[in-house]
Specification:
mainly alpha; 0% strand; elongated
Length: 84
């Protein structure tokens, strides 16, 4: 088991690649560009979502609740009269 651990450590160490400062900066620039593109796409999606919102419904009469008296004048609750 110790041999297997030592072998795994050596294999992983041998795959390490040292980078120059220029390579690191290039990777950072690529990541920054990717983040900016994602941010722009997110902002566009949020703007599109804002345009698609439903319009507010304006009623000519007052909305009747389930437990309010029925507007027909029967004296029953709306849910038992016309709400069923």
């Amino acid at each position: 088991m110790k041999f297997a651990i030592k072998r795994a450590v050596v294999e992983r160490i041998s795959h390490i690649k040292l980078m120059t400062q220029e390579e690191i900066e290039a990777i950072h620039r690529q990541q920054e560009e990717l983040l900016q593109a994602q941010l722009k796409a997110h902002q566009e999606a949020e703007a599109a979502k804002g345009r698609c919102r439903r319009k507010k419904i304006i009623r000519a009469t007052i909305k009747v609740g389930r437990n309010d008296p029925c507007p027909c004048g029967s004296g029953k609750k709306f849910k038992a009269c016309h709400g069923a």
